[in-house]
Amino acid sequence: MAELVYLLCALTSAFCAGLLVHNYRRTRLRLALWMSACFVGLALNNLLLCVDLIVVPNVDLRLWRNTTGIAALLTLVIGLIWESP
Fold first, then answer.
1. Contact call for residues 47 and 10 (beta carbons, < 8 A)
2. Taking Cα atoms as reference points, which of 46, 22, 37 lies closest to residue 71?
3. Span 54-73, pLDDT tens digits
4. What is the mean predicted confidence (pLDDT) over 32-39?
5. Residue 84 pLDDT > 90, yes or no?
6. How much is the CA Rg of the chain, to the nearest whole Å?
7. Which domain holds residue 63?
């Protein structure tokens, strides 16, 4: 059951990233670019979580997961600061 939740989270974040990329292409708002970069990173983070806990449970990918999560959130924070009036 937990594996299904992990996969659904990965699919949801990838879907949100796709919607944000589509929105950026349509409107060319730079904040949408920063948000889409963040969600791409979060989708990668969730994908690494699935690989870590489902595919290769004997390999510890915690460092890679934490690094991608922090980089994704840092991207969003930098984008919010950069685009503030």
1. yes
2. 37
3. 999 999 999 999 999 999 99
4. 96
5. no
6. 14
7. 2-82
